[in-house]
Amino acid sequence: MKEVLRPKVSYVRGADGSALSLSNLPPMGSQRWVMRHKANIVAAVRGGLISLEDVCLRYGVTTEEFLVWSAAFDRFGVKGLRTTRSQKYKNTESALAARVAPTK
Length: 104
Hints:
Blueprint: E1 12-13, E2 19-20, H1 35-46, H2 52-59, H3 63-76, H4 83-100
Antiparallel strand pairs: 1-2
């Protein structure tokens, strides 16, 4: 029988500095991800409020997707979590990598 792990903390600071608890997280099965929701999920995982495994199960996101959110948040802040911005940054990084990569 698998043991259900309870969070060790009751709240963490969200991306905007306000208190964030499990009840403040987006509802289970959410499919519309606005920047604030992504940032709060990143803050909740980093603060120990919820595990990455639980986030993946609860919201149907992949570990890779979460890691992209986390990296974008670190690099560009909350605004980096915009879908259009992520595409723009991704395209910019791809273009830079193509220019730097040696040609054969």
